[in-house]
Design a protein that fits this description.
The complex is a heterodimer of chains A (308) and B (371).
Chain A lengths: L1 H9 L3 H8 L12 H32 L6 H8 L1 H34 L3 H16 L2 H12 L4 H8 L13 H25 L3 H9 L4 H29 L3 H7 L6 H10 L4 H35 L1
Chain B lengths: L13 H9 L2 H4 L3 H4 L15 E6 L2 H19 L2 E6 L4 H10 L7 E5 H9 L8 H11 L4 E2 L2 E14 L10 H5 L8 E4 L5 H9 L12 H11 L3 E5 L2 H9 L5 E5 H9 L4 E4 L4 E8 L7 H12 L2 H11 L2 E2 L10 H4 L6 H4 L3 E2 L2 H19 L2
Parallel strand pairs in B: 1-2, 1-3, 6-7, 6-8, 10-12
Antiparallel strand pairs in B: 3-10, 4-5, 5-8, 5-9, 5-10, 5-11
Helix pairs in contact in B: 4-14, 6-17, 7-13, 9-10, 11-12
The chains are: A mainly alpha (308), B alpha/beta (371).
């Protein structure tokens, strides 16, 4: 193609042809045609369908169709107190983690954005990225070592004279919250930081020059602009948290299972694949619903801020 | 290669072996009785070759399995054994393999209750008559089922850290008495019936009247011990870890795991009072790719008590061939629920009952635990 275009304008020298092609009829454009766009999407779409859509449809289908067609599996889920409790535990802890992660994430992200000290920035980036690079098993066992009865934390507190008897920290809900919070914090920091980073400093300066306090400037200028990514961060944290499996087992024990742990119980101890499929479907639908709500919330926020 | 084949020898009754043990032979005897065993040549069988995939429990257990049984077995037969770790996941994984039409396991080392579920669902095969006859001849009838042979017989034990516990519970009733026997406890979190069986004995039900268990009565008693349970362990490793780390003072453990903690230097008191004793079975999946190799292994295992003795010493779990105890020092043997003096304080669990009621048992237990 290039050759033929070049041939008309610059004779038969291929190097000249390539040079001459640049300002030719078929310029590079940032918006390729729909057909080209679809073609480029095909590999990703195929993977997505094969590895994501098909398994999910199969799981929901299994929950509905085995052994007989109907909603019995879901009714069973709801009538049995154990999975219901697991659902509420999952939602409650995930919501708590989401709030903590979003608040802490926004603080850290702002500090990353605002600090003038290279050292502080380096430390913060290190602290943000290290958990991401650590294997989940190591991370959870580290918490076990810190939190256990004769673990690091209890030893410190005892030697400082804060406590007389070691605290029961491991195998509690608090331990689960700490474990998930630590894992999910980077997922909150990174998107929020991205939106803070693109913020124009002069907007804050302008607000202050018009008499706003620092807090007011942050609240009235920074937050509305960053709101979509804060919502997005919260949605990511929540959705990933509801699917946690290892942390509730290792740090929480079997007393307060997460929904994902309950799926494990159904498969490995009750041999109940359709029941497990129903539980997994409930988990999936919950996550889906949360994303939907977050999506809407962000959308509305955008519209409102656009209207001023 | 193997020239001794005791398969055809006259079976030695379990009682005779126990009598020998009682006389203290076990502590000193090494190989005399077994070395003198029948020397008849093996009947001609088609030579079995190829791979044999054994699904087993992982960790230290798999390593001992390889070192003690599979390596010498491979050297003697030329069959190449492999292990796959699927701790506790044997039933659903085999189910999934069968459903996908791609069974990859030749042999599974699975709890007897789960093995009955597999048998009832056609996922494992009954032993061929000739294999069963050989196994019975080698180890005695009570250690061979229609679909497999006993392995890793284990019991439960009340294990107490003498260094940290104020008083040492010696009976189920003591263990369930959190007022008079204070201390942090650990119990099995993924239980089917062990907690129930201990609870009923703690409440005064005699061992021979446990079945069918009165679940309401059992759970009433379990409510009493629940506040004292600091950790509901999930894996054998964890049960050891919480004792070692002094996270707990006492617990209901598998005997082999308790023995392991003692080997690691902890001063544990073991009580086999009221111990529910179970066994694994080696079973062969219905569509095993190389079932012949698996049967070959079963024959080999049944006729190698010396390796069995090594296994008991390494893992603390019993084996099918009762002669294996002749190779075990008493100090080690007495930590084993299958060791006759301990066995007398416990009872064999009714795996058929557990298997039939598993769904209800697990549901009720899970629900009770998360209350």
């Amino acid at each position: 193609m290039a050759e033929s275009v070049g041939a008309t304008s610059a004779g038969s020298d291929p190097a000249a042809a390539r040079l001459a092609w640049r300002p030719g009829a078929r310029e590079w454009r940032s918006d390729p045609s729909i057909a080209v766009g679809l073609l480029l999407l095909v590999p990703a779409l195929l993977l997505l369908v094969a590895l994501f859509v098909v398994p999910i449809v199969r799981i929901v289908w299994q929950a509905l169709a085995e052994p007989t067609f109907g909603l019995d599996r879901f009714r069973e889920f709801w009538s049995n107190p154990a999975p219901r409790r697991a659902l509420f535990t999952t939602l409650r802890i995930s919501a708590l983690v989401t709030v903590l992660c979003t608040l802490m994430g926004a603080l850290v992200a702002w500090e990353l954005r605002a600090t003038r000290s290279r050292f502080v920035r380096l430390m913060l980036w290190g602290a943000t990225l290290f958990p991401l690079w650590t294997s989940g098993v190591v991370r959870n066992y580290a918490f076990t070592i810190i939190l256990q009865r004769r673990g690091i934390l209890n030893t410190w507190l005892a030697s400082l004279g804060v406590i007389a008897e070691p605290l029961s920290l491991l195998y509690t809900e608090t331990a689960v919250v700490m474990g998930i919070f630590y894992t999910m914090l980077p997922y909150a920091i990174l998107p929020i930081y991205a939106s803070f980073a693109s913020l124009d400093d002069q907007l804050v300066a302008a607000a202050e020059s018009l008499g706003a306090s620092k807090a007011r400037a942050f609240g009235d200028v920074v937050l509305p602009l960053a709101a979509p990514s804060i919502f997005a961060a919260a949605a990511i944290v929540f959705v990933v948290s509801v699917g946690f499996y290892i942390t509730p087992i290792l740090l929480g024990g079997p007393k307060a299972p997460f929904l994902a742990t309950f799926v494990d119980i159904q498969i490995y101890r009750l041999f109940d694949f359709p029941g497990a499929a129903a539980t997994a479907s409930v988990l999936f639908l919950t996550a889906f619903l949360i994303i939907g709500i977050a999506w809407r919330a962000v959308g509305l926020e955008r519209i409102r801020s656009a209207l001023g | 290669m193997s020239t001794v084949n005791p398969l055809r020898e006259r079976p030695i009754s379990r009682r005779r072996v126990l009598a020998a043990l009682g006389a203290g032979v076990a502590a000193t005897a090494v190989s005399a009785p077994v070395a003198a065993m029948a020397q008849q040549a093996s009947p001609a069988r088609r030579k079995v070759t190829g791979n044999m995939v054994l699904a087993t429990w992982g960790g230290r257990y798999s390593k001992a399995m390889k070192d003690i049984f599979l390596t010498p077995f491979s050297q003697e037969t030329g069959i190449t054994p492999q292990t796959v770790d699927a701790p506790g996941g044997f039933v659903p994984m085999l189910q999934a393999q069968a459903k996908a039409g791609n069974v990859t396991w030749d042999l599974v080392d699975v709890g007897e209750a789960d093995s009955l579920y597999l048998l009832d669902n056609g996922l494992v095969q009954p032993l061929p008559a000739d294999v069963k006859a050989d196994l019975v001849a080698a180890v005695g009838e009570q250690h061979v089922a229609d679909h497999g042979i006993s392995f890793a017989a284990f019991g439960w034990v009340i294990a107490t850290n003498r260094a940290t516990a104020k008083r040492v519970p010696m009976t189920p009733a003591d263990f369930f008495d959190v007022q008079n026997f204070p201390g942090r406890r650990t119990m099995y979190g993924e239980d089917q019936a062990t907690g129930v069986l201990y609870a009923l004995q703690a409440d005064g039900v005699p061992r021979n009247q446990l079945y069918p268990p009165d679940l309401d009565r059992a759970y009433k008693k379990l409510d009493k011990v629940k506040p004292g349970v600091a950790v509901w362990w999930r894996t054998g490793d964890q049960s050891q870890q919480v004792l070692r780390d002094k996270e707990v003072d006492m617990g209901l453990l598998w005997d082999g795991r308790a023995a392991g903690v003692i080997d690691q230097g902890l001063d544990l008191e073991l009580s086999f009072e009221g111990s529910p004793i179970s066994r694994d079975l080696f079973v062969v999946p219905t569509k095993a790719p190389n079932a012949a190799a698996a049967f070959e292994f079963l024959r080999w295992y049944a006729t190698h008590p010396e390796e069995g003795g090594k296994w008991i010493q390494a893992m603390g779990y019993g084996v099918a061939n009762p002669k294996a105890y002749e190779y075990v020092p008493e100090k080690i043997a007495k930590r084993n629920a299958y060791y006759p003096p301990n066995f007398a304080k416990g009872f064999m669990v009714n795996t058929r009952w557990t298997s039939q009621n598993r769904a209800d048992l697990v549901k009720r237990w899970t629900q009770w635990l998360s209350q």
